[in-house]
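Recall the central idea of this unit: under ordinary conditions, the amino acid sequence of a chain determines the structure it adopts. In this exercise we apply that idea directly, starting from the sequence alone.
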Amino acid sequence: MHGIIVVPPGCTGRQDQVGLVPGERLVFGREAEFLGHSHSLVLAHKGVSRLAGEITAVGAFWTLSNLNRRQTYVVENPEGAGEHIKLAPGRLDAPIPFEFARILLPAADELLAVEVWAPRHDYLGSEPWEPQGATTVPAFCLDRSKRYFAVLVALCEPRLRDMPAHTALPTSEEIVRRLRPGWSAANRATVQWNINYLAVKLRLRPPRESAETGLRRNGIKESLVAVALRFDLVREEDLALLGEDAGVGEER
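Accordingly, the structure predicted from this sequence is:
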């Protein structure tokens, strides 16, 4: 039973995949087959280093070494709303925690993508395990039935749908149009009020701070999305709120 599966660019079948058990390594690059390793992956592209990198299967995760001395590599989580790790040139044995990951290798005029599948991660069961006593105070207290949460989901939608990281966040008017089918009273003022309320709720702005001008508001939106996605406050399944039932919850 293989722990890690490496899928080369343009792979069309299982025969092209490489399986690694914990402890095994795979080198990849333009001339990787000439290096005498037990597992190698040849990326026949003039823009790829002769020896570009090395993948090591560990267990429920894997490590990546960037053997290129000039180029940064990016490992992204296609299921993580823009979540990614950067490996500086020469970085060795960086642990990669994603169950499904995509290594992006800049190669001359294009990006080559090598996919890596790790074993399914284990999590604590649903049974309570904390000692008896006072309940732990939650870090972020969000009610998914409220209007403000639907606004937050609409803000995060481009990132949740795996759109490019540079895609602009929706404007207040676009959020109004997105939520109006289930929230007929939505308008620019109510959406902006909820954005300001979220900024206070997620501790990005003091409760009594006065309204700011447009540039600052854009910064607040970016900060809200960053916090929401970094801590999984909004997940892909929450996009269902933007369908026919968008905004069905009560006001704040």
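Confidence is low (pLDDT under 50) at residues 245-252.
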